[in-house]
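Backbones bend. To wit:
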Amino acid sequence: MARKNQKRFEIIHHHCAGIDVGSREHWVAVNPEQYDPAVRQFSTFTDDLIALADWLQSLNISVVAMEATGVYWIPLFEVLDARGFEVYLVNSRATRQTSGRKSDVLDCQWIWQLMTHGLLSGAFRPSDEICSMRSLVRQRANKVCDQAKSINRMQKALSQMNIQLAQVISDITGVTGLKILRAIVQGERSPEKLSALRDGRIKADQETIARSLHGNWRAEHLHALGQELACHDFLEKQIAECDQAIAQALARLPVLQPETGLPCKPLRSAHRSADQQLALHQALIKVMGVDLTAIPTIGIDIALVLASELGPDLSRFPTSQHLSSWLGLAPPTRISGGKPLPGKAPKIINRAAQALKQAASNARQDKSFYWRQPPCPPDADGH
């Protein structure tokens, strides 16, 4: 009798489906009491994804839950989202089964069952326009990272030849450093002629630079230096192309604030000119509706990451506490016996959180006082 009176989970979504995403095939499960067959397998070709969406529409399915597996979910998500389905992109940790047998059929049925009772929550995904810009910003970040690796390999080749150029100038990819490196690759070996390429803004004198350029010019290290210098120049060109594509993506976004003023602080970049920085700054204000760079230690690059990862619409987060939790910047709630237990913030890989952590780390060296920030100077129109 007690078993009959036992409460069961309430059904929240009556017409839903669960999808186990894979690299070669997707397994889809629906309610076995309403449909037959209840589980179907689809390949990952585009026409198969369209057939999957057609089948779900024929069953009057309105809600779909799917695992965020690698990047394999993206084509299917785009097809289902374009068809008008309410798609829940779910973290695989939330769909982890209890110990026992495991198969693709059981996985998709488990996802369907969890979704039926409303036990899954969808991941945050901004609009398609913001996602397009996000891909460009991430691609640019990858190119900057690749360029940093090339610089490290150039430094390694110089150190192996005992060329101590990095000890006398702060950046070997600056004006003076690149002039000297290009001359070395072109065959110049005289320390006096190489040091004569010194820019007037370098603190080290010409004699000190010449002393640092005495070394053992080995052919294998010179070959590596030439290749890494060419790779550096190629990546610099690709970074500029990414900046141009990002500017075009920003121009396609809706404008929230048409009037923009001058930046409150100098905005410098190693890859953009001052005019490009100013144009990007104004475009970000128009899209976001606020000037993120007015916050101390947040520059154009960090503001661009925040804009591309979050976008201007934060309505998916009811409060700032929800946003902090999504970023992984808030400690988890752990209470036992009425006492809070110590615990660290959950380990979440989030580019927006990494950008905010970088800004917070830079704040330790910032000499300004955030509560004494002067107002931004008015522009030509008095705004």
In short: The radius of gyration is 28 Å. The CA atoms of residues 84 and 214 lie 68 Å apart. The chain has a mean pLDDT of 88. The chain has three domains: 16-116, 130-248, 254-372.
